[in-house]
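Hi L.,

You mentioned the student needs an example of a multi-chain input paired with its predicted structure. This one should do, with 76 residues in total across all chains.
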Amino acid sequence: MRRREIPDAVTPAAATGCAVEGCDNEPQRSQPRSRVKEALPDLDLAAGRRVKLCRDHYREYRRASRETRRLDRMGG
Ligand SMILES: [Zn+2]
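Structure written out for the whole complex:
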């Protein structure tokens, strides 16, 4: 019998939860890794082109990215 590949929907236990290192909260939103890294450079993120964020980290990311954008517009 051949082993079948694990479908995308069923992720291994280690890969569930928020992509932020040390955070086990349930992921809510998937975001491009580069964007999150840009907004929150201090966080350790899981590998991958897109990262899943829990509600708290997503909110943090939104706030941080908005501030970054505003700074950009001001030319800072
Ligand atoms: Zn989190």
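You could point out the following to them. DSSP finds two helices and two strands in the chain. Strands lie at 27-32, 50-54.

Best wishes,
N.
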